Amino acid sequence: MIVYLLVGGAWILFSDRIVQSLISDINVLTAVQTYKGWFYVLITGILFYVYLKKDLIKIRKAQKKAKESESLKSAFLQNMSHEIRTPMNGIIGFVELLRNENLSKEQRERYMDIILKCSDQLLGVVNDVLDLSLIETGNVKLEKESIHLNKLMDELYLSYSESMKEGVSLEQITKSEELEIVTDAVKLKQLLDNLLSNAGKFTSKGKIEFGFEKQDNALLFFVKDTGVGIKPEQIDKIFNRFERAEIETTKLIGGAGLGLAICKGIVGEMGGKIWVESEFGRGSDFYFNIPFVAASHQKPEEEKEKNDVLIQDDCLLIAEDEDSNYLYLMEILQDLGIEIWRAKNGKEAVEMYQENDKISMILMDIKMPVVDGYEATRRIREFDSQVPIIAQTAFVLGDEKIQALEAGCTDYIPKPFKREEIYNIIRKHQRNHKD
């Protein structure tokens, strides 16, 4: 409005001076000034129309996009509700059935297998949501290490070849020599797991191919299938969060629909890009690349031989305030023949360790009353820098692992963990009695 008034005032002032200097006849001057006023109104009216039309188009597009976003979010939440409630229904239902004392051994084993399968399914959904949250908040941390890439691909082949549908074959295609690279092995495996899992879900016959090839300073990975494919109008959206919720096949096949959005975020963090080539009804080819960093070929120090027998004649201190978590650890560790002590908060953990020379390892929960796991670890490190302290926590959205290591923890295991995972981490860090 201010610009309009300033331009209008300038037009009247300067145009009047020019017209008056050129025309002396009052009648002609009056007519020219009238036409001059109408000309200004006409020009400014056209400009206002063009400006307002563009602004209205932007507003309508924004409104349409907001409605689409809300629609996708609603569909996503409905899908998530289904994906969470379905395994929960299986867990609750079959746990209730296990109360029946008249069940046969075979029935009990079958019910427990279903409960475990449902639990893994539920955990997968939760992990997907947490992974996406980490990506969107910029909290993804890469932990690079040296890995044998061909070995990783072989392990994936063995894992997925056993679960292929009837009529679907799995082929591994490696267009490179044996490679040892430096990368985040967990993230790389997660990428390939997501793509292979998707390919398996959407392919009912034909084959799935996966592999990699070295290209100059990059590694190109691919997962190709002969599945349902992707409609052309959906290809540009397939890696966006919530978008998969509108794909009709999702209703039939299931899944939280976050895998590709997670893949895009992880690949971006690793310095690469991901894309897809697809023909609807004939299959999809997914590709992603990451920088190639060759591993150093320095001869590693000879590792000390690890004892396959877990701690014996020693004491394991479990710092855990939740009864259910402590009882679970007791159940899976009691067959190892080791003495187990419990502290219900960080203060008790410090005091118990100071008073007992038999304690040779500590499982330290992070969130505890009185004194948390971080502070308890720091206090123990003031007088003992050697005892293995394994942080165990359900916090996974921040830098908990880094904070735990900085506080003095020897290692970190996220909840929930399985029997073999806790066995492995104890084996890894077991040591003799305190000096």
UniProtKB/TrEMBL annotation:
Gene3D superfamilies: 1.10.287.130, 3.40.50.2300, Histidine kinase-like ATPase, C-terminal domain (3.30.565.10). Its EC number is 2.7.13.3. CDD domains: HATPase_EvgS-ArcB-TorS-like (cd16922), HisKA (cd00082), REC_hyHK_CKI1_RcsC-like (cd17546). The keyword Phosphoprotein applies. The chain crosses the membrane at residues 37-52. The keyword Nucleotide-binding does not apply. PROSITE patterns: HIS_KIN, RESPONSE_REGULATORY. It catalyses: ATP + protein L-histidine = ADP + protein N-phospho-L-histidine. Residues 79-294 form the Histidine kinase domain. Residues 315-430 form the Response regulatory domain. It comes from the Bacteria. Keywords: Membrane, Phosphoprotein, Transmembrane, Transmembrane helix. InterPro entries: CheY-like_superfamily, HATPase_C_sf, HATPase_dom, His_kinase_dom, HisK_dim/P_dom, HisK_dim/P_sf, Sig_transdc_His_kin-like_C, Sig_transdc_resp-reg_receiver. It is an enzyme of class 2 (transferase). The modification 4-aspartylphosphate is found at residue 365. This is histidine kinase.
